[in-house]
Amino acid sequence: MSDRLNEDSLADLPEGVRRPAYDRKAIKTGIVHLGVGAFHRAHQAVYTDDVLSQDPRWGIVAASLRSPDTYDALDPQDGLYTLAVRSQSGEALRVIGSIRQVIVAPREVEQLLEAMSAPQTRIVTLTVTEKGYCHDPATGALNESHPDIVHDLEFHRTPRSAPGFIVEALRRRRAAGVPPFTVLTCDNLPSNGRTVKRVLTRFAELVDPALGRFVADEVFCPSTMVDRIVPATSDQDRARIAQALGATDAWPVVTEPFTQWVIEDSFPQGRPAWEAFGAEFVADVEPYEHMKLRLLNGSHSTLAYLGYLAGYETVADTMADPAFVRLIQGLMDEEVTPTLHMPAGADLTAYKRALVERFRNPALKHRTWQIAMDGSQKLPQRLLGTVRDRLRENAGIGRLTLGVAAWMRYITGVDEKGAPIDVRDPMAARLREIADRAGGSPEKLAADLFSVREIFGDDLPKDPRFTKAVIENLARLYGQGAKRTVAEFKAD
Ligand code: CS2
């Protein structure tokens, strides 16, 4: 047996390992994906792997927009990798075959553009994280001074950014008389389809006004809600999975049993029948998106900042503390749920109950530090939109503002014991400068952070109900630490 997972070793895998139920050689490329991280490989690539057993048109060419790491892992494996679904009752392994090829965009610009421009490519999917859209998180507009956008507008034939690649490929298709692909964003952005459409249209308009009109009129960007918890793969995972496979997989992905995908059904060029494998097609994704971003991601970020500060390494560790469970349940029930407007039949109580169980899953080592990344890009849709809705109703925001305050305490870059925090955020340098200037004063730290318009907009800093609550919570975090603040938390 080969010691590496690949086409040759597939047949020798142990019986319990599920593998592609189709002939990989017969597959065509129908989808180009940008951002081939763990999330894509545990979510869209899995639904598509299922579809390929019925319809060979939808193979994926996946690109990394930055590092060659995934290529280095998957290329020697013929694109194959293991999906490990973990719960308390064990681990199920499945080899996924839907990714036909991995491209490293920075060194293969032309190859990626060719794949995107090919007539048989009908859909371009994206998981490039919030910051990959090069937009202003508070307004959702293209950030025209973003260095990658400045570069891509000047050299639009050799782009670097996701919007740059998409618009250049659309330009080529239009020039060649090939209909545009559908752009399917699978990131946790508010109204993600509309946001990506706005960003692409503006970018295209800056390249050429006629191209801008073309994007506005003819490119479809359905919104989606995607959900599956996918922690970063650890070396322990690699070793355990290699043992079970009897072959090495350089980059398996580890996830939970739960998975959900809600998609707006507007694909004029056709689409895979993902609904045959659990995806839901609906007319309006927004209620589901609010439910997920506000309940799941809002809780996640709150748990991540507070849990990290309290010394908890993972979400499951944080959820083993009953005071944190109480806080999160209160956040969901009292402060988030009243802002949601779900279609008839949606069972929020069951959804929230399942969420608490998912967060508790001890088989997933989802680090609080991982979720804490990129807070400047996440806060607006996870917590601040809910805050705005609550303020409009003059309703309580005690827990929401504790989450915001915990983020502020976290980005100071020094934890409660005086040890450094490795803050990863596209705004890290600016945030750190603000924190250093504040010199440990919660009032000054909060006031200066409120002035970061890209996060808080123009309205929230002017609302004393919001600013006062954040400052009070921040003062508590400084004064008594996160663990005690959560243990003694009382909503007003
Ligand atoms: C997490 C999400 O890292 C994060 O910020 O909140 O990636 C979360 O695990 C997914 O959205 C779950 O669907």
Automatic annotation (TrEMBL):
InterPro entries: 6-PGluconate_DH-like_C_sf (IPR008927), 6PGD_dom2 (IPR013328), Mannitol_DH (IPR000669), Mannitol_DH/Oxidoreductase (IPR050988), Mannitol_DH_C (IPR013118), Mannitol_DH_N (IPR013131), NAD(P)-bd_dom_sf (IPR036291). Residues 30-275 form the Mannitol dehydrogenase N-terminal domain. Residues 284-477 form the Mannitol dehydrogenase C-terminal domain. Gene3D superfamilies: N-(1-d-carboxylethyl)-l-norvaline Dehydrogenase, domain 2, NAD(P)-binding Rossmann-like Domain. One of its GO terms (molecular function) is oxidoreductase activity, acting on the CH-OH group of donors, NAD or NADP as acceptor. Coiled coil: none annotated. Pfam families: Mannitol_dh (PF01232), Mannitol_dh_C (PF08125). Keywords: Oxidoreductase. The keyword Oxidoreductase applies. It comes from the Bacteria. This is Mannitol dehydrogenase. It comes from Microvirga ossetica. The lineage of its organism: Bacteria, Pseudomonadati, Pseudomonadota, Alphaproteobacteria, Hyphomicrobiales.
